[in-house]
Write a structure and sequence with these properties.
This protein is α/β, with parallel strands linked by helices. The protein is 30% helix and 24% strand.
């Protein structure tokens, strides 16, 4: 979401319902994550309109943001859930999802964890020949989905590409005969196929190429009920940035899928598992400016946060637009925005914004996905609070941590 989407002409930075940044920081403190649920609904609607069919299932990839209120809100919109750990499955069940609305797609987990998923009755997606064989020994009658690696380099960068030949995810398209051998030997019930090539896919033709490969393979499995095409839909990170043309993708995809179903002789369900696409633009991260530090070449804006709260710029080189939410007017200057962690935690270099002073509030955009969920207590810092904006009202949905949270699981040795 661009600067202009938050800025209003009255000189404030406002959310839905004319709730201001200052209002939220005064009430809940900073640093602070804020999620505007109206944006989630807008993104969800884009997908359902683009793929206009009753056979559509949207499974929110909850690793992006597992706050139970986010999950419950998406459930109210009609979403299912894509999970990657048994803990995410359990949170989803607590949020009210039916087990059959949950797809569990783990990677490199133990058979014990897979057994827990079986006991909970969720849909299970397997991506390893060895695991497939072991699962067939233990649970031959349990319906499964199989994740295929299409050997496609999709995604915004190598770190978020999951369908290339060297990826740890999925079973190679060249190993499909081995899948059939294992399935036949154990009389297993394959009801779904799955693929996910990565996040932030720029070219819809890359997505469609993967879909074509998966549909070609699907003809070899005669008892399918659904095909999960993953996601990777891109959102814009700054003014003029590219995003997925959902309407165009939906039109081209449905033409292919309808043709496949006619050839297959059965109408299958379509599954997508967007995470970032649904929640990223709903989220903002608000932080106070602790210090302005000028060196011979650089002006630093030092914040009361760091990579412990927002690691994506340091881990992935991700771009988050930043504005000075305290000043809509005045001169514009260049700032390198850094944190208070004892590491090189740089959020952005030479960012142009309204003159920043100590005590100002900076607002980071696109912070609804993979931000709080990747936060930590590094440097023994507390994780921030989270606030949701729903129907023009703000609600605290996670308390700020305190010293008790840092020490609650530690056990002191009596003799020390």
């Amino acid at each position: 979401m661009s600067q202009s989407s938050l800025y209003t002409a009255n000189g404030d930075y406002n959310f839905t319902g004319d709730i201001t940044v200052n209002e939220l920081v005064q009430k809940y403190g900073a640093p602070l994550y804020v999620y505007d649920f109206a944006r989630i609904e807008k993104q969800y609607s884009k997908i359902t309109k683009a793929f206009n069919t009753e056979r559509l299932r949207v499974n929110y990839a909850c690793k992006a943001n597992t706050n139970i209120n986010v999950l419950k809100y998406l459930k109210s919109l009609g979403s299912g859930l894509d999970t990657v750990s048994i803990q995410e499955v359990q949170i989803g069940l607590k949020a009210g999802f039916d087990p059959q609305q949950i797809l569990y797609t783990p990677n490199c987990v133990s058979m014990e964890e897979l057994g827990q998923a079986v006991s909970l009755g969720v849909n299970i997606n397997l991506d390893n020949l060895s695991v497939l064989e072991q699962f067939g020994d233990l649970y031959p009658d349990y319906p499964i989905c199989v994740r295929i690696n299409p050997h496609i380099m999709g995604g915004g960068n190598h770190k978020i590409s999951t369908g290339h030949i060297d990826s740890k995810f999925g079973i190679s398209i060249h190993q499909v005969p081995h899948i059939h051998r294992i399935v036949k030997a154990h009389n297993m019930n394959v009801v779904g196929l799955h693929m996910h090539t990565g996040s932030d896919i720029l070219d819809i033709e890359t997505f469609l190429l993967g879909a074509d490969l998966l549909l070609e393979i699907a003809h070899q499995f005669k008892d399918l009920e659904y095909i999960d095409f993953g996601s990777g839909f891109k959102v814009p990170y700054k003014e003029g940035d590219a995003s997925t043309d959902m309407e165009l993708l939906g039109s081209k995809f449905m033409e292919r899928f309808d043709k496949f179903c006619a050839e297959y002789g059965k109408d299958l369900d379509i599954v997508f598992e967007p995470g970032k696409y649904l929640v990223s633009e709903s989220g903002y991260f608000l932080a106070n400016v602790n210090v302005i530090k000028q060196t011979t070449s650089t002006v630093f804006a030092g914040l009361d946060t760091g990579l412990n709260h927002l690691i994506r710029p340091m881990l992935y080189g991700s771009y988050h637009e930043v504005v000075n939410a305290s000043r809509a007017e005045g001169p514009t200057r260049l700032y390198t925005i850094v944190g208070y962690i004892c590491e090189t935690d740089t959020f952005g270099v030479n960012r142009r914004m309204k003159e920043v002073r100590e005590g100002d509030i900076l607002a980071f955009s696109n912070c609804g996905a993979y931000c709080f969920s990747m936060s930590s207590n590094y440097n023994s810092r507390y994780r921030p609070a989270e606030v949701a904006i729903l129907d023009g009202q703000h609600h605290l949905i996670r308390e700020r941590e305190d010293m008790q949270d840092l020490l609650s699981k530690q056990i002191e040795i009596p003799s020390l």
